Amino acid sequence: MTEIIRSLMKGSWFFAPSARDLLFSLRTTVTSLVALSIAFWMELGQPQWAAMTVWIVAQNTIGESLSKAHWRVIGTLAGAVAAIVLISAAPQQPWVFFPLLACWVGLCAGLGTLCHNYHSYTFVLMGFTCAIISISSIDAPDQVFSTAIARSTYIILGVVCEMTVALICEPGVAVRTRATVRRQLRDIIEETSSAVRDILLSRPPSERDLYRTLSDVMTLNDRMEFSAIEAGHSGPMVAYARATLGQAAKFMSRGLGMQTRLALSGVKTGSVARPVVAEFSAFLEAMPRFLDSDAGVAQLCLRVGRLSYACETAIEKTADTEKGNPDRHSLVDDRIVLQGTALLLTELTLLLRCFMCADMDRTTLSHLRLVRPSNWRSAMSNGLRSFIAVLVAAFIWEITAWPTGTLFVMFVSVVCARFASFSNTVIASKNFFLGAVWAVAAAIVPVFLVMPVTSDYPVFCFAAGIPMILGGLVNRHHATAAMGASFVNFFPYMLMPENHFRTDEVQWFNTSMALLAGLGFGVMVFRYLLPFSFASFRRSFGAIVENGLRDIVHADTRMTDQVWLGEVVEGMERLIAHEKDRDAPRIDVWLRDAFSIMTAGRNLLYLQLLVRNKMLSSDLTRELKELFEQLKNPRLHVAVKTGAIRNTQATLYRMETRSDDPAERIQISEAIGCLSIAARELTRSGAFFNRDRTIIPGAPEGPVSAAL
């Protein structure tokens, strides 16, 4: 609360807002008042919901607004049908009705957690729309159909008003969207290439900087859904943009593996690898200057091709001159570094091709895009929490016989469903509650000083419009957006305008108490019922990555680089959302371990790809398959698996020493490089896997020293 007030007092965004923010606030205020006047003209009950819907649907971009409006209508209609079915199934039976309602809200909260963007919002709407309509119809179940029609009507009215005005006020949005997407992709490529260049120069960025870059990539990938709406018939452009983001994440994560190769191989003393790495670093430094035009990107592709040729030539040189060379260990080290450089160049080539929209089929593009995996554990927790909260709220109403207890239960259902899918439910629900407190306070002036003395609608608009405009500005500022959104949502509700009568003061106070009590109870539910804990998160994330590592080494695995990156980054985002302001050293250690897990998994995935595509010799394939059999055993502790990796690494090194075929030595050293990275990174991330495990008799008892 103090931080929000400090942000308001210091922010020029509030006292001297930008023209764009002020126009948005003015436009949405006028639209909401127009929607309210139309609802009055149609003589709808509770016409304030039309004005509330305008503010709920209005977002920073037209794409977000259209998407939210689309899914809000679908969720509202589905929730209305569910409410009719629910009331019909349990008329005049409160303790049949409330458990059924709790099950429905819990189910919707859980399903919403499994989805992303406004697809999640659909299930949220289905949950609390059902609660609003069904609870409003408890006293008159025969009127549930009329109540459902009325709510659907003013929701659709608010959506139509906002969409009409937004489309009129945003001409030429498709052209601007294409330019914006291009600029955002350029910035992402520049960020990732800068991080990789710093790694090549042995000055790697901090884990927090790496996390911020990957989080930016994931966020922009999520927002491509809205850009697709704004760009109109530009499906290929959005597909290439998503593929570009996926490749940018892969390129940077591959750079983390390169960091390990450099540390293990001592590239500073390698005469063959050093000039190639230096040339690649210089190329990455100059690359951003060529990203502004297609011709510049084409030149970059040609230069990457020449670098790749030089790298492959250097790899062959190390293999041809290794046999009998007294400095063969250095040559093998150089080859491992050069093979990592070749992988980076391959990722960069595909990244640039996606950025310049080269000719690629849609299947390939869809495989390159990032994936946010579904978190079933969180879905179960959110569903169970919402189920319990609704039942407890209903029980409170039952034992207190509170006259406005139905509103209390309704708002508990709303807040539990609405925020179940948020990363940090406690902070989100708390800011939502604070916004409602400000809305109740701001409504005092028009309700008690203006509406009693006049029924003139223009005067009412003036009294209500000023707080709405201020709330709209608060809504546009990132630090106060959640509180601002709650304020502009509930301020029209607390005005409680009616066509033929004025709400009396007692009813207003009772409604205010029910609103604040319901939202406050929701905050306590998120804080004390199945709350986030670092220990629990660490266990669950450790289980997720262990299962992922086992999936990676299965011969018929469906795990991909994109899915693996998505799982690890989503875990990072969840932790940062809850713990970023608490224990910074612990978070830094955790991020380091998470990046180690990401790097190890990617290198094991690459080896599995080589084996599956039969790109290795039979002896090498056999050794790797034997290793994979051990790695996919769920009963082995990670320390034992790391020891198995080091044993295989030592075996491959002996094979490399005995081999007379340069091509085979190249294959073997490629596998050695990946195994070296996996062993080192799994050892570094051992804090994830310190739980007790059963060890199969005869399994290796611990890691052995790396042969290199």
TrEMBL record:
It is found in: Cell membrane. InterPro entries: PHBA_efflux_AaeB/fusaric-R. The chain crosses the membrane at residues 73-90, 96-114, 121-140, 152-175, 379-396, 402-420, 432-451, 479-496, 508-530. This is FUSC family protein. GO terms for molecular function: transmembrane transporter activity. Its main location: membrane. GO terms for cellular component: plasma membrane. Coiled coil: none annotated. The keyword Cell membrane applies. It is a multi-pass membrane protein. Keywords: Cell membrane, Membrane, Transmembrane, Transmembrane helix, Transport. The keyword Transmembrane applies.
